[in-house]
Amino acid sequence: GEFKGTYEDFHKFVLEEDLRWIMANVSPSSPDNPFQEYEFRVKRKDGQIRWIKGKSQTLFDAQHRAVFITGTNTDITEQRVLTDQL
Question: pLDDT at residue 45 above 90?
Answer without folding.
Answer: no
